[in-house]
Design goal:
6 helices, about 45% helix, elongated
């Protein structure tokens, strides 16, 4: 350990001597300084400071003249449907894992009109929801043509219930 400290002290002393030899201690303004052999590294120069952009003025929104009427509250007509009451089975963290390959093919073909992207985006949206009521409202809004009493919708809703209860 003492050897390492001695080696470091010797190295520091050598650096200080080299630095003192490179630049004279006192210079007169008329004296020329010889900079040959002096190497400067990136650390010798300060980082350039980027100018701070001025904030753009924020336009204030115009006040609304009349409030928009609230959407009418729709009663839940799905309360007595079997998929609301039946046991969905084992809970899952992701709706995709609760759908079999055969059901997925039937959902895409029947409910989503052969549009895999629509199916995939819908499952992603439903996975982000926190309640079954929220999912039902989403489905009613985006797929009003679905027959909520059909067998294929029953299986789809049971898959959703595995995630949302």
């Amino acid at each position: 350990m003492k050897e390492r400290i001695s080696a470091l002290e010797a190295r520091i002393a050598g650096m200080q001597a080299a630095q003192a030899a490179a630049v004279p201690a006192e210079t007169d303004e008329t004296d020329e300084v010889d900079f040959t052999g002096v190497e400067l590294g990136v650390a010798d120069f300060p980082e350039p400071v980027a100018p701070v952009p001025e904030p753009e003025p924020v336009a204030e929104p115009e006040p609304a003249t009349q409030p928009e009427p609230a959407a009418p509250v729709q009663e839940d007509d799905t309360a007595n449907l079997p998929w609301r009451k039946d046991n969905p089975g084992m809970m899952v963290k992701n709706i995709r894992s609760g759908i079999s390959l055969l059901d997925r093919a039937q959902f895409i073909g029947t409910l989503f009109k052969e549009d895999f992207t629509l199916y995939d985006n819908t499952i992603a949206e439903l996975n982000n929801m926190n309640s079954l009521d929220e999912a039902v409202a989403y489905i009613k809004e985006h797929f009003p043509e679905w027959n909520m009493n059909s067998d294929v919708v029953y299986r789809f809703m049971m898959a959703i219930r595995k995630k949302l209860g």
